[in-house]
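Researcher: Sequence recovery benchmark, item below. Answer with residues only.
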């Protein structure tokens, strides 16, 4: 989704994630957290990519 700036959308490419938590440390608005729950467990990692727009991000922070 093309945006006008960094805050227009967030893309999670979980098929590339190794759960190192560097993104958690680097996020300056504390929008990312890593848990020990397996809510993203899938057999096919390519189906684990998500794109959230600005409205969804604000709703989830609320």
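Model:
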């Amino acid at each position: 989704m093309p945006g006008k700036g960094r805050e227009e959308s967030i893309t999670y490419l979980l098929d590339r994630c190794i759960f190192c938590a560097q993104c958690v440390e680097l996020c300056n608005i504390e929008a990312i957290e890593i848990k020990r729950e397996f809510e993203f467990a899938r057999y096919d990692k390519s189906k684990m990519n998500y794109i959230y727009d600005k409205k969804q991000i604000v709703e989830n922070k609320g």
